[in-house]
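SAMPLE LOG
Freezer: B-3
Tube label: C17
Construct: single chain, 311 aa
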Amino acid sequence: EHAIKLTKWEKMRLACEELGPTFVKFGQILSNRADVLPQELIIELEKLQDSVPPFSSEEALAMIEKELDKPATEVFYEFDRAPFASASMAQVHKATLMDGTKVVVKVQRPGIREIVESDIQIMLIIAEILQRNIDSLKSFDPVGLIRHFEKSISEELDFIHESVNIQRFRELIKEEPEIYAPDVHREFSTDKVLTMEFIDGIKVSKVRKLEEAGLDRRMIAKRTLHAVLKQVFEKGYFHADPHAGNILIMPNNVVCFIDFGMMGTILRKDVEQITEILMAIETKDTKKIIHGIQRLSDDAFLESPQKLEYD
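STRUCTURE (predicted):
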């Protein structure tokens, strides 16, 4: 009876939650695609963020001790058993190192790699059926979309890969006082456990809390936009999963990005091409817009994956 009252968009979101972590993550990624999905579905998919139940602290501690090859009591002076964040691939605990440094410990969900591999195979079967039988979907290349998702999620499940991403990002923004990223404690990190600097921040979507903390919403909006544009157009290396749960606001309106499992790179020539398209949009030059998009599409098609580096 309750299901009858739900909209089709709500049912799609609930289906992702029922199907498990892989589908939740896929839904989270799709929630950033307002260019191809209806707004009603985007609103529902955004609710998938931070909606995954945590696993037990016993499992988390067992994973930490196995990965670090020592008792947790030898690593942490304090360890908060209750996770303060739980996501589709991992959960995060607050802790204090033996020297008093406050950290957060990201722990991968037990057995998640096997679940993801199985779910990806199911997704591929569904994508192949859709691509073969629905002509209107062929241009979206469902199979290619799932293959790309498979590559992204495999990288996200490798915390060593994420720690390298964080360090590279921190190096690029070291002279940008308005942007921040947590430091990594590499000696207490593996491919399944990631120990990082604790960030005392407020999630960017918590407007009331931001106001209560005396932070400037307009400045935050401006700095967040500036941070994204700077990553894409100046650095050529950008956070590829910037939903509200992955952006924290620190004191003095500093914008802090977290969760660096997915990053993107862009060639300088493509940056220049995108800039030309944006300028053509500003001047309403339709021919230049079409020509620019065609050139960008042709270049993307011809580039091999190995060449997609910023130089």
